[in-house]
Every structure is written in structure tokens, then in C-alpha cells.
Amino acid sequence: MESLLSVKHVTTAFDTEHGKVTSTSDVSFDVKHGETLAIVGESGSGKSVTALSIMRLLGKNGHIAEGEVRLNGVDLAKLSDADMQKLRGNDVSMIFQEPMTALNPVLTIGYQLVEAIRLHMPLDKKEAKKLAIEMLTKVGIPQAERVIKQFPFALSGGMRQRVMIAMALVCKPKLLIADEPTTALDVTVQAQIIRLLHALCKEYDTAVMLITHDLGVVAEMADRVVVMYAGQVVETTDVYTLFEQPLHPYTVGLLNSIPSMDFDDKELQAIPGTIPSNYNALPGCRFANRCPLATEYCHSNKPELMDTGDGHLTRCFEWRKLQQGGHLQ
Amino acid sequence: MFGYILRRLLIAVPVLFGVTIINFIIMRMAPGNPIDMLVSPKLPDAAREAKAIELGLNDPVYMQYWNWLKNLVMHGDLGYSMYTSEPVVSMILERMGPTLILMGTALVLGLLIAIPLGILSATKQYSKLDYIFVTGSFLGISIPNFFLGLILVYVFAVQLNWLPSGGMKEVGADGGFGTLLMHMILPIIVLVANVAGRNIRYVRSSMLEILGQDYLRTARAKGLKEVFVVNRHALRNALIPIVTIIGLEIPILFGGAVVIEQIFSWPGIGQLTLSSIMNRDYSTLMGLNLVAAFVVIAANILTDIVYAFVDPRIRKSYVGGAK
Questions:
Q1: What is the CATH number of domain A5-228?
Q2: Which residues belong to any copy of the ABC transporter domain (chain A) (predicted)?
Q3: CB contact under 8 A, B236 and A107
């Protein structure tokens, strides 16, 4: 089946005072119609930059330096600004990490929703308002007629994120990019929001590109997973294989760092070290300095994404060790 | 909201009186008095004394203030000028029109220039256009009003003879809208250079702060055109601090009139103030002080009201506070 979104060899660069800085390099993955793809990785691994590259919302200093982003076969990197605007919010929409600042504080909820609706649908103000109320009710906001007259400051973080979801899905986009949609919320609200997203996207047949560092959310929602590290994709597989048979030591480290409730005496596992800041200049594998399996060879040679069979890709020379030995530790 | 405004108005009354008391005391502490200005020093002391009694200057100072206040509150009367003997109210009213025309035009024109240029400067930060606007605004702020005024008079009135050097109309002529406009051009240029210069920087920095906000990314993610992102979503937020600054600028303009009106012989409040100070015209000065205090307080209350209109969070707190 033809992919809905196909990201191929995308390198995103920013112009800074110190010259051009490459943030992500050679990122490739596909999102199929109606599926949920999770992008996982720690802070600074390039997840958000990848998302903003697809939306072309990197700001004036950032741009896609190489590669292509195809949505239904159309290369977004080559679209004019005007054509890209028509696509945003209609074919592909986005929700953000921080609901407290994502809504304009001086415009009513209703205004912001109606604006989104009327940008892409031929409705008059009254019909758009009706649709806005319907949509707010759908995302679980009580007394929607009253809420559309309110300003964002009157709503809690969870409610605002529901408004963002309503706004993102109201035009029934083919793809929703959710950039850590629950990170800033209370734990009790997180589960509600994730279930709501999951249910609505299934109903609208909207594919989701879910960016998260919460593997619990991945297990709950995702069909397939892309693991990113230091601006690169290091592993791509379906969600079951990811938890059963990860083939990149970084993924293994991520899985091990999930706190366990079973044993009181088991220490919380962490991946030692941080992402090297000069990762573009490294001659070898970008994870080598933190990797328990790294050899001399890893430090001086750059691994490519390798197919280990069944479309399970990994960027590790030593993946066979993981396959044979099961989990590390 | 209504309750809030009412409260502000009620508080304004004692503030006004406080200002007049302080003004009265300071004025009377200053050296000189109206008698010296009115009567020839060659006249005998008896004649001076008679004039002083006539003007009530021999009463204790607190009695003089009390009489002034009584007249104001009971009859709405500000008394008569100690120098020209004209009623102070009519003198002020006569001068109010020209000042309002000049200052109002300068404020409106200044903002009409400053807001779009400030927005442009912010959205195109560090571009050539930005540098031109910022440099221009810096010049506008830095050049003193009187200096720019004198240069303009020298170039356009004295050398080129294109525009009149001062006044509101030709001597002896009736004057119409056209002549008024001609007379306004030079003082308006001076004032606008200042108002626009100051506000371009305010709008620019306020806009720059807003342009990095998350909600603008949300607006863009909806597919909104950049023009609307800037002018609908960003500007509404950027104007909130600007409103405060504009509110503060009204009294500044009012005070700035003193210099400008003197240079361009503009028959307004500023000129009247200066001549009243020269003549130690206590009664007129008290009237002018009252007007100035009123302008400051009114501008402040107006700012708060407009503030509530542009910022719903403030509106909410007013409604809450009024209960």
C-alpha cells in the first residue's frame, strides 16, 4: 500500500551565528494511511525538529537542506508557501507539547476554532460556530456553548489540550502530528488525552505521527515505532518487536530505563552520559560513547540503517549480538 | 467593569485636590509676586498695598487657597487672571482648542506611522529595512524638539519661505482650514518625529517578544496566512503594553506643548502657561495646574479602560473586583 507520508533522507539545518548547523540528518520513515507511528527518543534527539520540518514550521532560520517529504506523493519541501498554508490544518495538522501557551490568550476559544474551520471549509460563521461546539463536545468538553465564549486562561491544561485536539481534527486531516501531547499534563489527565486521541483518530481514519519519550504511551497507541538518537533514526520496527526484540542498544537502554514496580530493591536503570553535542563531527557511531557493545570499529565507522528482516531496521553493527543474547543486562 | 470605573473616578477627586494644594504651596514658595509685574516699582507703597488687598494677596495663604477652592466647588469658577483680569475659565478654554488640534493630530499621526513601521521592523528583524527604521526612530527620539523646530523654521520658513514660521493664521486675516494646515505642518513634523520615533521602538520590541510565542506556531499550523498571523494574532497581544505607553504619552505631549508652542507661537495652553509663570499670574496658573492634573488622571483611567478591552485577563479581574 502506498504510504500517506513518506520522509526520505531528510536533513534539517539551521542558520546560526556560527554558520550552518545540521540538526537531523538522513531521517527516513513512512506513515501509512490510518496508522499510528511513534517517534521515540530523549530530549535533543531531533524528534520535534523532524515534526516541524514536515509542517515547514521551523522558523526563518531552519529549513530542509536535503531529502524529500511526500504527503500523498506531493513533495512538501518544494511547495510554495501559499500551497503549504492550504495543506496545514487541512491535510496535516499538529498539536503541541505545551497547551498552556499554545492558544492565543486574547482570542476566545470559539474565535480560534471558527478561524481554523473557516480557513478550510466553505462554512459561514454560524455553521462554523455550530461545528465548533459539536467538536468541543466530542473531545469531552462540558458546556461547550459556554466554553467557546471563554478565553484560554479560564481553562485548565487538560481542557486546553482538548481544545487543541478539537482544532487539529476539526477539518478531518489525513495526518496528525502530535508533539509530546501529554508531557505537560497531570498523569491522571495524560491517559484520558491519549485515549481520546486514539479514539478520534480511529474514527476519522487519521494517521498519527506521535512524538513522545514515554514508552507507556507508545505501547498504548502506536502501531510502529521509529527510535531517534542524535538527529538520526536508529531503529524502526513494529511496536511488538520493539518491546520483544529491540535490535539497537539505545532502544534497549530506553526500555531498561522504564521504572519497574515489581521489585523494590531494583535500581532505576539509566543510560549513562548524554547526547554528544558535536554529533555531526563524530567519525563513527553517534551512540558509541554510551554504548555497552561498542567496539573500536564502532568508534571509527558510521553505521547505516540495516534491514534485519521483516522491515526491522537498525543502525548498529552489533545487532546480531542483541538478537542472539536477548536483552542486555 | 462599570463599578471599577466608578471607583477610579471617585478616587480621582481627592487626588485632584491634593495636586492643587501642593501646586498652590510650591507656587507661593517661589520668589516674586504678581504685584511686581502689575505695578510700576516707582509707585508709592500705599498703591502697591491697595492692589495687594484687591487681589487678596494679604490674606493668610490657607485662606487664599480656601477662597479659590470655595469658588471652584460652589460656582465652578476659577476666578480672574491677576494679570489680564480676564476670567481664567475662558482664557483656558480659548487656548484649549489649538493645543488639542496640535497634540491630537501629532499623537494620531505618530501612531499611524509607528505601529506599521514597528511591526515591519520586528517581522523583518536585522534586515536593512529594520536598521533604517530603528536608526530613524533613534534620530526622532534624540533630536530635541526645540532644536528640530528651529532648524525647520530656518530652512522652510526663513530660507525657502514655503511655510509660515509660526502662529495659527496670518496676522489680521481670518484664516481657513487651508491656512491652519499650512501653519500646522512644521510643529506637527517636530512632534510626530518624536512620537513616532519613540513608539516604533516600543512596537518593535513588544512585537519581537510576541513573535516567538507558541500560539503563533499554532496559528500557522492551522494554515493561517502569515499576514493574519502577524496582524491578528500577534498584534492583538503586542498592543497590550503599547496601550499603557500611549496612555503615559498623552500627559507628556501636553507638557511638551510648552516648548513647541513657544517656538511656533502657537496660541495654546503651553504658551499661556509660560506667560502666566512669567507674570506670576497665580490664579491662571492654578487653573492650568488643575487642567494638567485632570489630563494626567483622565489619561490614566482611560488607559485602564482600554487595557481591559485589549486584554481579557484584565477584564476578568475588573469584573471580579467590582462585585
A1: 3.40.50.300
A2: 5-255
A3: yes
Nearest CA in chain B to A59: B217
Say which CATH topology domain B88-278 has. Answer: MetI-like fold (1.10.3720)
Residue type, A100: M
Instruction: Give me the residues of B, 238-277, that contact A with CB < 8 A.
Output: 240
Listing DSSP states for A37-58 in one string gives: EEEE--TTSSHHHHHHHHHT-S
The domains of chain B are located at 88-278
Cα gap A148→B267, rounded to integer Å: 53
Residue numbers of B between 217 and 236 with CB closer than 8 Å to A? 217-226, 233, 236
Strand A313-314 and strand A62-71: the pairing is unpaired
Amino acid at A128: A
Distance between CA atoms of residues A31 and B289, nearest Å? 73
Strand order in the sheet with A92-95: A92-95, A175-179, A207-212, A36-40, A224-229, A232-238, A313-314, A306-307
CA dihedral B69, B75, B77, B82 (to 10 degrees): -70
* CB nearest to A167's CB, from B214, B222, B237: B222
Q: Looking at the complex, does the CB of residue B316 fall below 8 Å from at least one CB of chain A?
A: yes
Contact A153, A104 (CB under 8 A): no
**pLDDT tens digits for chain B (323 residues)?**
777 788 888 988 899 989 999 988 888 888 877 777 777 777 788 877 887 887 777 778 888 888 888 888 888 788 888 778 888 888 889 888 889 889 999 999 999 999 999 999 999 988 999 999 999 999 999 999 889 999 998 999 889 988 888 777 766 666 677 788 888 889 999 999 999 999 999 999 999 999 989 999 999 999 999 999 999 999 989 988 888 888 888 888 887 778 888 888 888 888 888 888 888 888 888 889 898 899 889 998 888 888 888 888 877 776 654 33
Q: Which of A163, A158, A157 shows the shortest CA–CA distance to A139?
A: A163
Q: What are the residues of chain A with a beta carbon less than 8 Å away from any beta carbon of chain B?
A: 55, 57, 81, 85-90, 93-94, 96, 98, 101-108, 115-116, 119-120, 151, 153-154, 164, 167-168
Domain residue extents for chain A: 5-228, 230-325
